[in-house]
Design goal:
By secondary structure, this protein is α/β, with parallel strands linked by helices. It folds into 3 domains: about 170 residues, 3-Layer(aba) Sandwich (Rossmann fold), CATH 3.40.50.1980; about 200 residues, Rossmann fold (3-Layer(aba) Sandwich); about 30 residues, no CATH class. It contains 16 helices and 14 strands. The strands form 3 sheets. A 6-stranded parallel sheet has the order 1-11-10-9-12-13, with helices on both faces. Helix 2 packs across helix 8 and helix 10 packs across helix 11. The chain is globular and about 85 Å long.
Length: about 425
Amino acid sequence: MPLKSISYSIPADWPDISSWLSRRDAAEDNVEPLVRDILAKVRKTGDDAVAEYTRRFDCPTMSADDLRVPHSDITAALGQIPASDADIIREAAANIRDFHQRQKQNSWITTPAPGTTLGQLVLPVDRAGLYVPGGQGGETPLISSLLMNAIPAQVAGVRTVCAVSPPRKDGSLNPYILATAAILGIENVFACGSAWAIAALAYGTRSIPRVDVIAGPGNIFVTTAKRLLVGHVGIDMIAGPSEIAILADSSADPAWLAADMLSQAEHDPLASSLLVSPDAELLAAVRKELEIQLPALPRNTIAAKSLSEWSALIHVPDLQTGLDFINRLAPEHFELSVADPWAWVGSVRNAGAVFMGHSTPEPVGDYFAGPNHVLPTLSTARFSSALSVETFCKKTSLISTDQAYIGANGAKVARLARLEGLEAHARSVEQRLEKP
């Protein structure tokens, strides 16, 4: 199997590895001019442009009046999927909701001195827009994307949650997407996708409300649209291709490690799966397991390209050096597949999510456990975090001072203003100093 073998022993080995992996961030085609045209057209003609693009790429019969999914279709979808599947979705939703409830931040007020009251208001945005990828023409519904994006918004207290997803050729959305919307109580669902859906959420149209924050993964057109709209609307993050890094010792099972690497490799040809270990025999055994397991996967062509171009088996002299590598890499998903993961987790500095021990494969976090699976990629875990309740909140400072405070501190404020050449600022305070 054409899978790289790399040695990492000292920090000087890092630049070459970093340079190789950073090339995943380079899009094969520059789609920005196309996306700019789409944004401009949707901003100018609204629903008509969204319907036109949808007819061209997804549903040939789509009209502007068909963009909103009727409430009756959302509620009916629950009867179109097996009750056992609906129960699983409900249970996953409950786990995700419970986890995110613990993220809620409270507004606070303090009185540091007589006559002074300071505080912070933590408020939800009014509207959130969620992008749910269609998945192979609607045949592989990304249920988890809707759960992971909608629930933090709801926990934050967002009053209006809107979901967009590209329709199938007949104009419908997969019943699993609609059933999940019904379970979550989401009433605003729209059958449109790609950059034109992002534009509609950002600018607002007759059918689709303008939102304050847009969240959810998508292809290069979706990602580029979100990037171009930063500043006009809030976004969750600019996501790159999926990735997993595993640090394993000799107690790990080669078959399990191979399966975990493949779980990311099947996402995308640009996905990266890295296994780091001081055990050379383990690395060799995982290579053999990959050769056995890969052909049996339905998406083996995608996984094979990911493994050959952006994945590697990385030998390190010891686990401490392996953790140094992980912290430099700052991976989206990090599996700490060692005998005693709790002894090592304190040394983890940079990772989107850490999966502890041999019995915590990454898909547990993707779908069911509760933490969010929208995670920073391409080493951005060095400075950013998973999607959370905070993504859908804003913080407003609260300041209250009385006349005694102005009397004691007004001259200092005025002096600082004049040092910056802002005379009106200074006089604004001094007007109050003159008050008897």
